[in-house]
Amino acid sequence: MLTVGRFRTDALPRSDRFARWQQCMTDVVAPMEITSPHADDFWADHRLLRVEDTLLWPTCLHASRYRRTPRLIRQSDPGLLHMTLVLPGSGTVLVEQGGLRSAVGPYDLYVLDVSRPSDVGTVDEPIVGVGVDFPRSLLPLPTSTSLDELLGRPLSGRHGFGALFSQFVTHLVDQSDSYGPADGPRLNRVLLDLAAGLLAGGLDRETALSPETRTRNLVLTIRTFIGRNLHDPRLTPAAVAAAHHISTRHLHRLFQQEGTTVAALIRSRRLERARRDLADPALAHTPLHTIAARCGFGAPAHFSRVFRAAHGMSPSDYRHAGLRDRAEPAR
User: Fold this and answer.
1) Is 224 in a helix, a strand, or coil?
2) How would you list the strands of the sheet with 65-68, edge to edge?
């Protein structure tokens, strides 16, 4: 993944800021009619990330309004589907497309077809969020699928595929330096699969997803479930399968294709969480049995045995070694 660019108004003369922001939005998405009560002293901080043909742009800016009119659409129609995840710190975003007008708040999303007229903005509060733009033709849904009833409508970013999509987008934004160009195809596939799952769920048409997309999304959902429930000692393959209404045999087949087993995944995730806690100076006085319990290891002796097998030393020795290394002055 590449950081294509960053736009900040701070270094610009006040008289140029709003015009340069208008040009930035034209270059990133498409020509828009933009207005703002702060046009004379506009402020914006915008970063642009490219994942193959998908663009992500985390943005924080003054209250403003964005209109795609028929004239501007005739001038330029990139064929994009636009989604925005509204983040804390943002005012309520008013969204209108296809005759539907909605209010979208933090932690929720909205979808726009850039090829159709739209009107988006806040009245007097900042806009904070992450925009995601990708060619509509790349969405893994049948070409006959109509998204009309979703356009301009708020979609939950707290539950189901909305939560998965939101978490993945914010992860990419926060960890963009961890990925290189070679990771682009896989990351883009996950983004598009999650977007398709979110939209299909909003349409109540999950069956419209291809079998491959449904399988990948199910695996992502299961991985997220495991990560959220590592503390529970009752987290077993059977419990995971039951929570997702599939058989244990089907669960094992899914993860066989991933090159691992569910039991191995749970164990490795628990060990990694325990390793991070043991290496955290802020938890230096937390009893080992407390760390074992919060990572889902029911018995301290079992935790010690499994940790030693994975890291070659006991949990207490690992903690002391980490603290000693931090205390020694650099040479």
Assistant:
1) helix
2) 33-35, 65-68, 118-121, 93-97, 100-104
Distance CA 293, CA 232 (A): 8
Residue pLDDT, tens place only, 44-87: 999 999 999 999 999 999 999 999 999 999 999 999 999 999 99
List, for residues 133-174, the tens digit of each pLDDT value.
999 888 888 777 788 888 988 898 988 889 999 999 999 999
pTM of the full structure: 0.69
DSSP per residue over 56-80, as a string?
Answer: EEEEEE-S-EEEE-HHHHHH----E
Beta carbons of 251 and 240 less than 8 angstroms apart: yes
Interatomic CA distance for residues 293 and 309, integer angstroms: 18
H/E segment holding residue 101: strand 100-104
For 257-260, the CB contacts below 8 A with 24+ separation are 257/215, 258/219
CB 8 within 8 A of CB 17: no
